[in-house]
Design goal:
This protein is α/β, with parallel strands linked by helices. It contains 27 helices and 17 strands. It has a nine-stranded mixed beta sheet with strand order 3-4-5-2-1-6-7-10-11, sandwiched between helices. A six-stranded parallel beta sheet has the order 14-13-12-15-16-17, with helices on both faces. Strands 8-9 form a two-stranded antiparallel sheet. It comes from Anisodus tanguticus.
Length: 959
Amino acid sequence: MRQRRNFSLQNKRQQTKKINIERPPNVDLQSSDDVDSNTENMSKQSLSSSIQEISIKENVDSLTETESSDEISYLSVDSNEEGQPSSVHIQDLIGMIRNAEKNIHLLNEARVHALEDLQKVLGEKEDLHGEINILEMKLAETVERLRVAAKEKIHVELLEDQLEKLKNELSSSRSSEENVLHVNNSVPLSHTDSVNSLTEEFDSLKKENIILKQDLQALKSELSNVKETDERILMLEKERSVLESSLSELEFKLAASREDVSELSALKSECKNLYEKVELLQELLAKATKQADQALSVLQQNQELRKKVDRLEESLEEASIYKLSSEKLQQNNELMQQKIKLLDERLQRSDEEIQSYVQLYQDSVKDFQDTLDNLKDDSKKRALDESVNDMPWEFWSRLLLMIDSWSMEKKIPKDDAKLLRELVWKRDGRICDAYISCKEKNEREIIAAFLRFTSSPTRPGLHIIHIAAEMAPVAKVGGLGDVVTGLGKALQKKGHLVEILLPKYDCMQYESIKNMKAVDVVVESYFDGRLYKNKIWTGTVEGLPVYFVEPQHPGKFFWRGQLYGEHDDFKRFSYFSRVALELLLHAEKRPDIIHCHDWQTAFVAPLYWDLYVPKGLDSARICFTCHNFEYQGTASASELTSCGLDAYHLNRPDRMQDNSANDRINPVKGAIVFSNIVTTVSPTYAQEVRTAQGGKGLHATINSHSKKFAGILNGIDTDAWNPASDDFLEVQYSASDIEGKLENKEALRRLLGLSSSEIRRPLVGCITRLVPQKGVHLIRHAIYRTLELGGQFVLLGSSPVPHIQREFEDIGDRFQNHEHARFVLKYDEALSHLIYAASDMLIIPSIFEPCGLTQMIAMRYGSIPIARKTGGLNDSVFDVDDDAIPVQFRNGFTFVTADELGFNAAIERAFNYYMNDAETWKELVQKDMSMDFSWDSSASQYEELYEKAVLRARTARRN
């Protein structure tokens, strides 16, 4: 019996454990009646939600049918009975889009109701589990009490047996009263009382056991209700998946409709102009048609008169036969002759009238044709004017490169090429017209047309040439590529002639280069004691003219599959620096500024002054920008001789000798010494590199040349980074309408498989290279701290350091199935745009940061930066709680010490702002998106430095 009870108890515990595995948290049931009532209410809510979902689906289906029919007819033009065109059904399309937005809103509400029902069911399951645990405890206590009672019952049965034996013995021996008393004394009354009490307790336990069985029966019925609830949950989840798929399809259609509306607005304005022209033409045509109808009616009358005349002539012939027979006939004949005369006169007047109508008709047709020709001429003229005034920078850069090609190929004189370049530089409309008119002609005729404009023009601005190893987007590794393109475009818009020189890598994004072609000329350059040929290519990138150098060197310097990281980088880029200057000399260019960047092109400065100024390339001032003093490109002094520089002459403490080794050359130090202007990428970083820690060994050199050293904060390309026109985003948005940011957040969650159960759960992003400079230990800490605070975390980035890459790959594996964290350990341009748009906050916990563009891009997309106060971060991110900063400039959360304690304080404040005050957070997002981080201000500072250097040089030449 005891084994059966234990076995039954184990079965109950196993069932309870099974229920415990399936139950979700946070459930609180009070009784079976409450469960039934809650289940009934939940069923009613589920039924109403299902009905609402069905109605929503019907609306979506009707909307889809409307869209499919409107796709055919939304651009069609109806005609009324008079042939007049009516307006385009724009209002119908706008209404359709509004209905789609309402249906999306209803779908979202249905999803929220379904999630609320699911949460209620899960709560009821948790309550039921608590009831089961209580009943299990009671059952265990009852079993134990039954076991004890069973033992007592056995003991009582033994005592009863002994008592019965004693009684039998007494009855058989018929002993005396003393013996009877003795026997009675041997069995005390307390035993009898104990037996009675045990019997009563046993009866009470039986009753309690019966009650427990009834409770268990009720519990089984409740468990069946739970199973039905689970099935209902599965049905709700299936319905939710169907709703999500329908919603995604509807969002796709809505995006397509919005694109159609944007196209339709342009078509509407164009169509309106065409309608006005057509209406004018139709009025002229109606007038001419009316006159033609009048002429036709007169012609018909004339034909009828001719028929009458014919009949009269026939009558006259008949009358002439009988002319002599009767005097009456004679009179009739005279009368007839008079009528014929009158008819002839009338016919003549009718002919004259017809001729006038015909003449009017011909004049109307001529006026109509003249008006049509004038409209065509006006349209062509207007298109030509627009093409001249609104030609993109790619057009002018293409003309500039074409003229340079003619000059290098000796097809036009150098002086004429210079004058033509200046015309293009000024965006002269005459040269644009000449090119358009000669576009279909051969090259000789185009050259002849261009040479007509070689009169002396006025000088509009500076001629600036950038020599760099990177340029976005064709060859980009870090921020250097963004700076070359962004600064170049900003200076170009200010009226300066900007050209770029780049190596021709095999791994460039060639699809981003427009009109790329080889120049029919070979430029020779000295290297390692001999001359090597170089092929020159031209093309436009982001509207800028670019020259690509392809060395014909057996080392295949730039055909390695990557930009940097080769064992002979020093030789590769010293070779390129020399070829770049050789190209300028060969093309007889006379730039005002030669701007070189980082150690890869730092060789330009000493090469220019030592080798090319004596050859006649002496018009320029040299500007050198170091984007990160961490990378200085030092090498053995003997390697400097390969590009033709005198190592003995330059390996001196006041020139190119590295400050930490007498036998090594430092290109960055050489550029600081030999340049007229030296800049770095933020004012704070310019102060940091003057210290021993920040200067990486060059602080003494920088301080000795401090008069020509400045820090200018970088900008970002606001055309490339614009949430209102970014094609990588799910939904475009702006500072005035930030609702699209939430939709991009949901799109990123779907893409990466993150949970979308809580719309307001903050999303923290991190887009970076995983190197020690970027604060890798704080990024790792940020993952766990974000999850502890109830947020989601997305990391995009990779590391060139193998052990760091492996470490984050291991972290990614651990969080592979986590619903609130994802790691994409590679470079993905499209995904970076979506993360900027989707993130509520973006962390930049750098140990040091010369400038940083990440924080500027984040604010452009409404992602609030959490950054350490260092370098460019200190110059662009200002804490919202810093009373020393004007309110209009406070735009993020900052911390000073590069440790977990400082970072925790900043991210916790950010979470508090986000969770507790939605309106304040929205205002902060809109303020950040409205801040100006464009290149305009930075380009003006560079422009000022350029002009001062050029003015000093011209003054020195005159003196």
